[in-house]
Amino acid sequence: MVIKKKGGSALKDRNVITKTARLITGSLDLVLKSSANSTSCGVLYQPKAPKTLERFRNKKK
């Protein structure tokens, strides 16, 4: 059972909540930016591979 005192505890709780919210939004922004950049660029535009890269393939056609 948690008993809260009147006074400074509300400010401390608000500080913890804001720090947690900033951490969550920052990590979600990072994930969304990396996902958007990696998948959409590959789907929308994929440049032609040079012929010289064929020698590095595992399987030959």
UniProtKB/TrEMBL annotation:
InterPro entries in alphabetical order: AgrD
Protein name, per record: Cyclic lactone autoinducer peptide
UniProt source species: Eubacterium album
Taxonomy of the source species: Bacteria, Bacillati, Bacillota, Clostridia, Eubacteriales
